[in-house]
């Protein structure tokens, strides 16, 4: 719960970000371990059908959901370690490829999904440096419909790659052009993704699917505390709505300030 009467204690949450990252990695390893254990049980049952009774293990989807929960909490605090990315990509991979679920339906995971898209965008741009040439050419004119502005343009703050980057005069022009840029404002999936740890041979039963669906559909609107990111695409409704904002001195970096925001996702 968010104690809005004692905002001075919010910076202390940053100290817990590393712990959430470690917890995400631990639960992910538990998920992978359960998968390996199931493989051994199935192999033994086939080789020795009369000597070993059927083993029943806990549902591994619970471990994966807990890993994603901790990863999202770390992402809310802007702590994006490889453990956070591992857990996030693994859960997103399961949702999209194996269960055919749109991960963005889990609205309070928006900080985690944005972090994954940011990683994919940076990685893609490094692999395709020629995209900067397109971005440099696109910088010469505002991309908003009907606008002919050519000076003091700002780039789209979304996770579009250099090859799809567009420029606008201001936030008003960006909102006007969002309908035309929406589909291009996300990076392509990587050919060799970071989340290759997810077991490809894992078979989800109906119970696992129902568990994830309950988890997805149980949220219609959620409000949560986050560390404000430097660049946020305000035209993208997936980023939520900022309700309140607080500013504090960063506990790790003297002289720097951190902004906490209370956001609502509908």
Number of strands: 5
Query: What sequence of helices (H) and strands (E) makes up the elements?
Result: HHHHHEEHHEEE
Largest sheet: 3 strands, antiparallel
State the shape.
Answer: globular
Describe this structure in words.
With 266 residues, this protein is mainly alpha-helical. It is 43% helix and 11% strand. It has seven helices and five strands; from the N terminus they run H-H-H-H-H-E-E-H-H-E-E-E. The chain has helices at residues 17-47, 60-76, 82-98, 110-127, 131-138, 171-181, 206-217, and strands spanning 154-155, 167-168, 222-227, 241-249, 257-265. A three-stranded antiparallel sheet has the order 3-5-4, with no helix packed on it. It has a two-stranded antiparallel sheet with strand order 1-2. Strand 4 (241-249) and strand 5 form a beta hairpin. Helix 1 (17-47) crosses helix 3 (82-98), helix 2 (60-76) packs across helix 4 (110-127) and helix 3 (82-98) packs across helix 4. Mean pLDDT is 79; it is low at 1-5 and 48-58.
List its traits:
single chain; 266 residues; mainly alpha; two-stranded antiparallel sheet; 43% helix; 11% strand
Write the layout of secondary structure elements.
Layout: H1 17-47, H2 60-76, H3 82-98, H4 110-127, H5 131-138, E1 154-155, E2 167-168, H6 171-181, H7 206-217, E3 222-227, E4 241-249, E5 257-265
Antiparallel strand pairs: 1-2, 3-5, 4-5
Helix pairs in contact: 1-2, 1-3, 2-3, 2-4, 3-4
């Amino acid at each position: 719960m968010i104690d809005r009467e004692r905002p001075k204690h919010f910076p202390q949450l940053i100290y817990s970000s590393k712990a959430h990252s470690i917890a995400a990695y631990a639960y992910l390893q538990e998920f992978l371990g359960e998968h390996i254990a199931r493989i051994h049980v199935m192999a033994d049952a086939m080789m020795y059908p009369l000597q070993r009774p059927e083993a029943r293990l806990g549902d591994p989807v619970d471990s994966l959901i807990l890993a994603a929960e901790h990863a999202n909490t770390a992402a809310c605090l802007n702590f994006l370690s490889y453990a956070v990315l591992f857990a996030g990509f693994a859960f997103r991979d399961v949702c999209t490829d194996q269960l055919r679920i749109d991960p963005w339906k889990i609205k309070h995971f928006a900080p985690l999904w944005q972090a994954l898209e940011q990683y994919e965008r940076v990685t893609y741009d490094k692999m395709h440096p020629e995209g900067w040439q397109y971005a440099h050419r696109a910088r010469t004119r505002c991309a908003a419909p009907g606008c002919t502005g050519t000076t003091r343009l700002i780039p789209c703050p979304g996770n579009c790659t250099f090859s799809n980057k567009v420029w606008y005069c201001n936030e008003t022009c960006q909102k006007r052009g969002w309908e035309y840029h929406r589909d291009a404002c996300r990076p392509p999936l990587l050919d060799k993704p970071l989340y290759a740890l997810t077991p490809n041979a894992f078979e989800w039963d109906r119970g696992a699917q129902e568990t994830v669906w309950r988890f997805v559909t149980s949220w219609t609107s959620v409000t949560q505390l986050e560390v404000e990111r430097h660049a946020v695409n305000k035209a993208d409704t997936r980023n939520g709505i900022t309700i309140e904002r607080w500013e504090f001195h960063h506990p790790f970096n003297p002289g720097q300030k951190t902004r906490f925001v209370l956001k609502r996702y509908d």
